[in-house]
What we know:
alpha+beta, six-stranded antiparallel sheet
Amino acid sequence: MEWSKIKTILILLMLAVNIFLSINLYSQVSGSIREEHDMTEHSGEILKSHGFAFFEDAFLDMPVSMTSYTFRRDIEAEAKAAQGLLGECEQAQQGGGIYQYSSSKGKVIFRSSGYIELEWLSEDEPDIEALLMPGLNEDALSLKKETEGYSLYMDGLKIVGAFVSDRHSGKETFAEGVWVYGQKERGAISRTRAELILALGDVMKKLNLTSIDALKSAYILSPLQNGDVRLTPVWLVVSGDELVYVSALTGQQITS
C-alpha cells in the first residue's frame, strides 16, 4: 500500500475518533445541564408544596454557579487613584495601614479594607471617578453613578457594601465609603441551585416568611482583618418588606 494512502487512512481514523469523542463529551455536558435544570425545578416544587409562593422561573433565572473573591490591598493602585484626582501629591503614612495623599486641591485618605475619605478644597468640580476608576483594573468590575454616590458591580452584580458617597457643603466636597483596589483571587464555588433553594426555604421558614416577591444574585463585601476585602456571592430575597441575604456558599442567612 502506498504511503500516501496509509496517511489518508490514518487521518480519517483520527478524524473519526475526534468526532466520536466530541459527540460523547457533548452528550455528557448536555446530560449534566439537563440534570441540573431538572433538580432545580424539583427543588422549587418542594418549596411550593410546603406553602411557599414565588413567581414562575424564579430559580431558573438565577446563575447556575457563582464564585467568591478576595481582593488583596494594593497600595500602588491607591496611590495611582489619588494622583488621578489630585495630580502631583505628597504621600504620608500615618501608621495602622493609613495612607494620606494631599495637594493644594485637597486630600485623600485610604484605610484598610477599602475605606476611602476625600476632602476636596479646590473651586474646580472634582472628578471623583478619577479616584475610583483605578480600582477597576479587572474587566469584571464596573461602577454606576447614583444620586448620592457611586456603587460598585462585579460581573454585572451589585456589591453590597461597596459604595462611595458624594456630598457637597458650600464650596467643599466630601466623599467617603468603601471601594475595591487590587487584583482579585478566586475563592470557593457556590452550592448548586437545588441546594440553595432548599436552604433558602429553611431560612425563610425560621423568619416566618412564605412569599418570594423578588429574587436576584449579588455580592456582599466583607472587610478582613489583614486589610483585604472578600466578596461573597449571595441570593437576595425580597419578601414583603423584608430583605434577606442567603450565602450562595453555605446556604446560611448573612447580614449585609
